[in-house]
Specification:
endonuclease activity, tt1808, chain A, 3-stranded antiparallel beta sheet, alpha+beta, disordered N terminus, about 280 residues, 2 domains
């Protein structure tokens, strides 16, 4: 889970008691919203759009691999589409004032629909027609879980207005999802498998072998390129084995036919020795 770009806000949230934390989160969210609105009204000139992402490294190797896995699987599943952008651990710039410490939030994984599928240095809202992510996934860690469940959730709900927000804790396997309804996040209800349905992606999300994965509407696991290649190798090996078995069966049938023919020839010869015409038998 990427940390907040504003360390002061993060420290406040983690150090405050629960009731004070909630008040602080509401205050920070309100201030961010008001600042953005005031900036637009005041005619503040937006900074250039070619801004580099300014995110710290992922907390652990697992966090990194989980983010890459989600990205690889979705891009492989949508390999024929050019109308989306998916990335991870990338800064989303949404404040018109280009200050490193102001209101920059870097989701661990996010998807934007209805945009060009092209490389970007970062996601700059004012350069993307005001578009925010349609879906965000945060990978929880001990140091950021409270922020992911609190302040970030409020920001994604009240400022980004991201339709779907999920989080996953690789240590405890905690997995939750929310859908924005009437401006407020409501819990998504898991099915009998513990999976959650994403209307935005039209895919299921669920935990498989301790990792968060995508599943098709029919319940098939969406593979990453390495898994797909391994599956093709296994399928080719199975086809080779089936062909070999078929060849062996054909050879056995040929041998049985030859043996039957030889036996018939011996029987005919024996009948002739006895003065019997085999064709009359």
């Amino acid at each position: 889970m990427s940390s907040l770009s504003n360390p002061e806000i993060q420290d406040k949230v983690q150090d405050q008691p629960q009731d004070q934390t909630t008040d602080l989160q509401s205050q920070e969210t309100s201030e961010a919203t008001a600042e953005l609105g005031d900036s637009l009204e005041d005619g503040i000139v937006f900074p250039p759009g070619d801004l580099y992402s300014d995110e710290p490294p992922m907390e652990t190797e697992f966090h990194l691999r989980q983010m890459i896995l989600l990205l690889q699987c979705l891009e492989a599943w949508w390999r024929g589409r050019q109308d989306f952008y998916a990335c991870g651990n990338m800064t989303i710039y949404y404040s018109p004032r280009q200050l490193k410490s102001e209101h920059f939030r870097g989701p661990d994984f996010f998807v934007v629909l209805g945009t060009d599928r092209k490389p970007r240095k970062s996601w700059v809202v004012w350069e993307e027609g005001g578009q925010y992510p349609n879906l965000i996934i945060e990978i929880l860690s001990d140091s950021t879980a409270n922020t992911d469940r609190g302040l970030k959730k409020q920001i994604y709900q009240n400022i980004f207005r991201t339709p779907e927000y999920f989080w996953f804790d690789p240590s405890t396997q905690e997995f939750k999802g929310f859908q924005l309804l009437a401006g407020v996040y409501q819990d998504l209800q898991p099915d009998s498998r513990g999976w959650l349905w994403s209307q935005q992606l039209e895919l299921y999300l669920g935990v498989y072998e301790s990792k968060l994965r995508f599943f098709t509407p029919d319940g098939e696991l969406i593979l990453n390129p390495e898994e797909a290649a391994l599956q093709e190798i296994q399928r080719a090996e199975q086809e080779k084995q089936r062909a070999e078995q078929e060849k062996q069966r054909a050879e056995q049938e040929k041998q049985r036919a030859e043996q039957a023919e030889q036996q018939a020839a011996r029987l005919a010869a024996k009948l002739r020795e006895l003065g019997i015409d085999p064709s009359q038998v």
